[in-house]
Please model this.
Amino acid sequence: MQTRMLGPGFGAEVLGVGLADVVDSDAARDAVREAFDAYSVLLFRGQQVTDELQAAFSRRFGPLETGKVASLGEGTPFSILTNVDRATGALVAPDHKESLRARANQLWHTDSSYKREPAVASVLSARVIPPAGGETEFASQRLAWDRLPAEVRERLHDAFAWHSYSHSRDQIAPHLASAREREAMPPVCWRIRWRNPANGRDSLYIASHTSAIEGLAPAEGTRLLAELMDHITAEGHTWLHRWQPGDVVMWDNRSTLHRGRPWPATDHARLMVRTTITATAADGVDALRPLRH
Ligand SMILES: [Fe+2]
Model:
């Protein structure tokens, strides 16, 4: 297996090993896991992706999340992002729930930080790619942590922040998060710094889902979160992935932010399938939990 750097200090293409190799071989799995811990985002090109292969590959890195309530894929290991109405095959209207979800997905975020069990990794495959737009852009929360002034790192070392699903959805439309979703996903509080036990590297851990910093007045917390977001995603520190058929991207939700980019969604279909791997003690999740609150 070889790797080729893609982004500014993070992100790499994996060469010589594909999804099927990881399913079949512990050595291939271990090599990919090592690259994942090192580079945060991995690109596999030319894959013959099926739902079964994607799920089997993803399970090699930990337990899979089940699709969240009221989403396409609820009750399965698949999160389905698409503007195609599955019943009719037509493209959905801009005010359709899936269109609004796509817009929420275009906010900088890390997957599942609003869940009681956050995710270590996501695996995304492109099944239908629009002719323009629809890229996925990444930023490194690990490199952003390293770039922070020492006094800010010290201030944030033991800070905690609140994450909720409704906070990011409310930025798009007031009713995008349903009563059932709000009830299923109440706010959760996490340390604002996630240390990867494999290499000791710290990352910021915030997202569009982050609503407040514990112990700070709301306005002050909002201001600090906005400054940190700008810092993480500053020009020159992001990497845009333009999807090709057969591409699969795996990213570290502990150490990156990502966002979908818009595309002419009333003219062109896009279908992406995500599997999501729940963080375990080996991924450092226990240190995220507050001692109090
Ligand atoms: Fe996402």
User: Anything to note?
Assistant: The first strand starts at residue 2 and ends at 5. Residues 218-232 form the longest helix (15 residues). Residues 144 and 231 are 7 Å apart (CA to CA). The pocket of fe (ii) ion is lined by residues 105, 109, 111, 258 (CB under 6 Å).
